[in-house]
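Today's session is about reading a structure prediction critically. Students often jump straight to the picture, but the first step is always the sequence itself: look for stretches that repeat, for charged clusters, for runs of hydrophobic residues. Only then move on to the predicted structure, which in these notes is written as discrete structure tokens rather than atom positions. Here is the chain we will use throughout the hour.
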Amino acid sequence: METINLIFLSLHNVLRWVVLLLGVVLVVRSILGWLQKWDYQERDRKITSIFSGVYDLQILIGIILFFTKGWGGVLMNAPAEVMKTASLRFFAVEHWTLMIVAAVLIHIGSAQVKKATESIKKYRRATVWFTIALLLTLASIPWPGMSAARPLFRFFGLVF
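Below is the predicted structure for this chain, in token form.
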């Protein structure tokens, strides 16, 4: 089980950077498209689709880790202790809740972009929905310096 956890932790960490890179690219392209009145491009649709898919994969791996690493059990067995301790509360409640909310916003935003008929509306909707999702994602990552800090990069036992 420990090897499987190591694999999933490594994937979860590497995918974090893929999600952030795709999110930043998507938000920047959306803002530029909106402000510069670009025609909505197939490239933007593909980036949106890839971003959404990678985010969903990240959520799936996170759910697996939630149960295999024991955060679900900690929350169920000692809810008062979890809520009093910032680092426990972060992983047992805040991290996954905000990430799922961000995933929902990404899917709503994708649908809103598809529904829009004009390019400027597509880019405006993409800017709003994906920026909020990206900000929630950034707030939900256990950055160094936080009580629940994790390494910036972790790959099969290598920690940076």
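Discussion point for the tutorial: Helices lie at 2-35, 42-68, 71-77, 79-84, 86-115, 119-139.
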